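Troubleshooting: if your tokenizer reports a length mismatch, compare your output against this known-good record of 614 residues.
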Amino acid sequence: MVHNSLNPEIRRLPEIIVNQIAAGEVVERPAAAVKELVENAIDAGATAIDIAVRDGGKAQISVTDNGHGMTPDDLLLAVERHATSKLPDDDLVLIKSLGFRGEALPSIGAVARLTLTSRTADADSAWSLSVNGGKIGKPVPAAQGPGTRIDVRELFYATPARLKFLKTPRTEANHISDTLERLAMAHPGIAFSLEIDGKRRFQYWRPANDLLDNDAQLFRLAAVMGQDFADNAMTIMAERQGLTLSGFAGLPTLNYPTARHQYLFVNGRPVRDKLLFGAVRGAYQDFLARDRNPALALFVDCPADDVDVNVHPAKTEVRFRDPGLIRGLIVGALKHALAEAGHRASTTVSQAALGSFQAQSQAPYRTNTNHYAPRGAAEAVAQYFAPPNTGTAVGIGLPDLDAGPSARDEPFSEMTSGEAQDFPLGAARAQLHETYVIAQTADGLVIVDQHAAHERLVYEHMKTAMANGDVARQVLLLPEIVEMDEAAAGRISDRAAEFAELGLILEPFGQGAVIIREVPALLGQIDITTMVKDLAEELAEYDKALGLKDRLADVCSTMACHGSVRAGRRMQAEEMNALLRDMEATPHSGQCNHGRPTYVELKLKDIERLFGRR
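Known-good structure output:
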């Protein structure tokens, strides 16, 4: 027997208290109420849903749809707990609708003033039913066309304590907008509109009937996520063991500081799942810095018994029967799409570049007409290209790319517009500030960051060689002794065997030093001392339990950075064209290892606009 000093009797709670408790689980804020009502409209076969809210949803929420509608008897059943039309077989596993719990309407009615007005297509008139603080009225005739309208007024008036925890009306309205945008992305065949305090927030129209499913999906994503996303989206399509993954993912150069632009939908249901964020980070880890995130919208379709949607009362989380399979499907599909993108970069890069130009009515006055770097800069550049310790360096197909700065100016070979059109990145025409390569294309120009581009090329070649187990090594005629603090030398020495697999042969050399005998041939002539010290610094941040192969991307990225042609390096015409051709042939060359663009493309029509020619 249970004893309680305050109330020794066990009693059944009143129905209204039970409903208020259920409301606390299902309707924690106005956005949750909107979500439940809109999902009911979607399940009712609506093709147009209009939502209006006032005071962040606290004063009023109105949802109108053109779905199947309800009879008077249906209205009475709909506001009872655990009454639903969405489980015909009473099977909680095989759930094929968005809403199924049968708690949304009675829960909302328990804490607000709820009015349902509905009419079926074959009925002569509509019927209306009111529920105030859990008290159910009787259906009465009403005037309305086919479909259903639900009005929720004074949300949480029956539970005033809940109102204290709501945010400002603007914040609550933003949550409502975000919830509806997710539902709109998941259902492109339905028109959505949202009105907040009498002002239209958005209107998403149904796509044209002649659009294919994939085009219709992108049409809706462009409306919600912006045209920039649609212009720079890669198509995602993969299937494995009965699971289908579709959607669109943005190019790495279209990135954001947060993961707010990442969306996952499972069987038409928008969900927030940590599995998505982990899989996306794994797929993009070679292309983005750790503090940048891509934009994407992925849709998973799977058998109902492979996913559990009962994890969360609001159904915002799901649990997969085989999470490893889902993660592998997402990572594999994204990596395939990134490889197919080749050297493509986001159009937002060129838009930002054009936006930075300012028209000048006259040339600015300059007191110093010398635009070249001072002579002392050549000495600093030469430190990166010290005399080699061995014979000819092995490059990655670029002629003498690691040789010292050219001491002579060579004329650029003339190339016709037809010939330039044969190459996506055009033909090299000039080099600015010994850092940027200018190339002419058939319909514009391309500006290439030579260091960022070559860094990506070296990195991709290193990954390919290591994956094939064919890392060519270059023996140093004079081994390089690198001195550092004893702890750093110890970290490097402890991983000597793993570094050997990556083409870097080293061994301890007394206390506080290591000796380098061989380096990866792909790196060419490098500042070995600086590279090894940088690797030691990175090892200090690694988990000791992780091997270098587990951090292959980081190690290769560091090596590639030191093995790439530096800014300030003067290049000959043949070298620049070889760099452009290798970029065109190498996957992912549109962005460096940190997600920054390696080139900017400006179309001739855009340049003409800058000068008022268009």
